[in-house]
Amino acid sequence: MNTVPLRPVTADEIATYEVDGVVCLRGLFDADWVARLRGVVDRSMSAHGSQTREYDTGGEGRFHANMFAWRDDVDLEAFVLQSPAAVIAGALMGASTVSFFFDHLLVKEPGTVNPTPWHQDLPYWPVLGDQICSLWFAMDSVTEASGGVRYVAGSHRWPTWFRAQSFDGSSKYSLESMPPAPDPDGSDEHRVVCFDIEPGDVVAHHVMTLHGARGNATTSARRRGLSTRWCGDDAVYDPRPATMVLPFEPGIAAGAPMRGDYFPVVIG
Questions:
Q1: Disulfide: which of 2, 43, 91, 217 matches 9 by Cβ 3.0-4.6 Å?
Q2: Which candidate, 129, 100, 71, 123, places its Cα nearest to that of 227?
C-alpha cells in the first residue's frame, strides 16, 4: 500500500479545486487500499454499530452509512494515518497542518431509490473554517446512474448557508433562519458536474460546495464510497446549535484548533 500519492497532485488540479470547489483525482492510490476498504464495508454492513445508519429506501436496495469508526477498525485507522489522503487534502487546501475530522462510509446498493439531498457540509458540522475538505474514495466503478455524487461548480464561494437536511428525513439539523438548498437542476445558472470514476479514484470537495446524489438506479452496480473529512490551518471547533453531536467528548474548547486525540494531526 502506498503511503504517498503515486503521482503528485498537479497545479491544474489544485486550481480546479480552488475555482470549482471540487476536483476528480485519479491514479493516486494503489489497488491494495481499495481491497482494504472493501473489507471495511463488509464488516460495517454485517454488524450494527452505534454510528451505523440504514436509511429507508422504499425499494429493494440498501442505503447504509457509518461514521466515526476509524478508532475501532484497523484498516480505517491505517487509511487515516498511513494513506496518501492527508497529503492530498493538504495540497488542495494549501495547508501546512492537516488533521483528521471523521470518516463517513456511504453505500448505495443496486435498486436504492433514496437520493442524497442537495446540501453543503458545513451547516451540519461543529467546525468552522475555509480549509476543510472531503475526499470521497471510490471502491467501485461509479456513474451518475449508480449514485455518483453531483456538485455545483463554484458554489463553495456563495455567501449563503443553506438549511441542513437530515438524510433520514428528520428535522434535527434544521434552523428555520436558513433558507432551504436550491435545486440546481431547475436552473440554467448552475453548472452541475458528476464524474465517472473507477476504484481508487478520489473526488475532493470544499466544505461549502453544494452537492447531492440520485439513488442507485442500476440493477447490479454497487456504489461503495468512503468520505474522509480533513481540517487545515484555520479550522476550529464550533459547536453551534443544530449541528452534528459528536459521539465522544472532543476534549477541546470552542474556538480551539481541530487537533487532539480524536482529531489527530497527520501532517504538521
A1: 91
A2: 100
pTM: 0.96
Task: Give the pLDDT confidence of 28-72 residue by residue, as tens digits.
Answer: 999 999 999 999 999 999 988 889 999 877 778 999 999 999 999
The residue written with cell numbers 476504484 in the block is 199
Containing 104, the helix (H) or strand (E) segment is: strand 98-108
Nearest of 83, 66, 20 to residue 247 by alpha carbon: 66
Other C-beta atoms within 10 Å of 76: how many?
A: 24
Distance of CA 256 to the CA centre of its chain: 23
What residue type is 174 in one-letter code? Answer: S
Task: Please say if the pLDDT value at position 88 is more than 70.
Answer: yes
With contact defined as beta carbons under 8 Å apart, do 117 and 213 qualify? Answer: no
Angle between the N-to-C axes of helices 11-20 and 85-93, in degrees from 0 to 180, rounded to the nearest 10: 70
Q: How many CB atoms lie within 10 A of CB 104?
A: 19
φ and ψ at residue 49, rounded to 5 degrees: -100, 175
Residue among 129, 2, 126, 141 nearest 68 (CA): 126
Q: What single string gives the DSSP state of each residue in 200-256?
A: T-EEEEETT--EEE-----SS--EEEEEEEEE-TT-EE---TTSPPPSS---S-TTS
